C-alpha cells in the first residue's frame, strides 16, 4: 500500500495537485521519448550504454507508480471530503484528470508496443540483442542488404501480378469491343432486327410501368384499409 501523508482535506488535495503536475510533465517527456525511440533501433552507429528503449521502460514503470499513487490519493480525498456539492465536483474533476492521464499513458504505451512488434516482424527471425551486438558492422550491413533484397523480390512479384492482370483486362476489353462492333454491324445490315430489339425494350419498359402502377394502387388500397 502507498503511504499518503496529511490528514486533512486541504493537505490531501494539495498532494493531488502536486502529483498531477508531476505526472503531466512526465507524460510529455514520455510521449517524446516514445517517438524518439522509434528511430533509435535503425541507427546502430553509436550504441549508448542506456538506449532510449531502456529509458522508455524505466519511465513507464515510474509513471505507472505515480498513477497508482494518485488514485490512492483521490480515494483518500473522497474519504475526507466535507459535505457539499462543490466538494463532490472537485473530487469528480480530480478523477477525470486521473482518467485522462491513464488514457494518455496507455495510448503512448500501446503505440510503442505496436511499433516494436512491427519492427520485430520486419526484422524477421533475428538473433537476440546480445548476439547482434557482437556482429561487425559489415555483417549488420550485409544482413540489412539481404532483407532489402528479399523485399525487392516481393515487390517485383506483386508488380508482375498486377501487370498480368492489366493485360488480361485489356484483352477482355478488346474482345468486348469486337463483339459490340459485330453486333452493330448485324443491326445495321438487318434493320428489322434493330426494330425488333427496340420493340422488346419498349415492351419491357411498359410492363415495368404497369407493374409499378399496380403495386402502387395495391399499396394505397392496403393503407386505406388499414386506417379504416
Automatic annotation (TrEMBL):
GO terms for biological process: endoplasmic reticulum to Golgi vesicle-mediated transport; inter-Golgi cisterna vesicle-mediated transport; protein transport; vesicle fusion. It is a single-pass type IV membrane protein. The chain crosses the membrane at residues 209-227. Keywords: ER-Golgi transport, Golgi apparatus, Membrane, Protein transport, Transmembrane, Transmembrane helix, Transport. It is found in: Golgi apparatus membrane. GO terms for molecular function: SNAP receptor activity. The keyword Membrane applies. Pfam families: V-SNARE_C (PF12352). Residues 108-141 are annotated as: Disordered. InterPro entries: Golgi_SNAP_su1. It comes from the Eukaryota. GO terms for cellular component: cis-Golgi network; Golgi medial cisterna; Golgi membrane; SNARE complex. Involved in transport from the ER to the Golgi apparatus as well as in intra-Golgi transport. It belongs to a super-family of proteins called t-SNAREs or soluble NSF (N-ethylmaleimide-sensitive factor) attachment protein receptor. Belongs to the GOSR1 family. Component of several multiprotein Golgi SNARE complexes. This is Golgi SNAP receptor complex member 1. It comes from Euphydryas editha (Edith's checkerspot).
Amino acid at each position: 500500500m502507498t503511504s499518503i501523508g496529511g490528514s486533512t482535506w486541504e493537505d490531501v488535495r494539495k498532494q493531488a495537485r502536486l502529483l498531477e503536475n508531476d505526472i503531466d510533465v512526465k507524460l510529455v517527456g514520455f510521449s517524446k521519448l516514445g517517438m524518439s525511440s522509434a528511430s533509435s533501433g535503425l541507427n546502430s552507429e553509436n550504441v549508448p550504454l542506456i538506449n532510449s528503449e531502456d529509458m522508455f521502460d524505466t519511465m513507464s514503470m515510474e509513471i505507472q507508480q505515480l498513477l497508482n499513487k494518485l488514485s490512492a490519493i483521490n480515494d483518500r480525498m473522497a474519504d475526507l471530503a466535507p459535505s457539499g456539492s462543490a466538494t463532490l465536483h472537485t473530487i469528480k474533476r480530480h478523477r477525470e484528470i486521473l482518467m485522462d492521464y491513464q488514457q494518455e499513458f496507455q495510448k503512448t504505451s500501446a503505440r510503442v508496443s505496436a511499433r516494436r512488434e512491427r519492427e520485430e516482424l520486419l526484422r524477421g527471425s533475428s538473433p537476440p540483442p546480445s548476439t547482434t551486438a557482437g556482429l561487425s558492422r559489415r555483417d549488420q550491413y550485409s544482413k540489412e542488404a539481404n532483407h532489402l533484397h528479399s523485399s525487392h523480390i516481393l515487390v517485383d512479384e506483386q508488380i508482375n501480378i498486377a501487370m498480368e492482370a492489366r493485360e488480361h483486362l485489356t484483352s477482355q476489353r478488346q474482345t468486348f469491343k469486337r463483339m459490340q462492333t459485330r453486333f452493330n454491324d448485324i443491326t445495321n445490315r438487318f434493320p428489322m432486327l434493330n426494330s425488333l430489339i427496340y420493340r422488346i425494350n419498349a415492351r419491357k419498359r411498359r410492363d415495368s410501368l404497369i407493374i409499378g402502377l399496380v403495386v402502387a394502387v395495391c399499396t394505397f388500397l392496403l393503407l386505406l384499409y388499414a386506417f379504416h
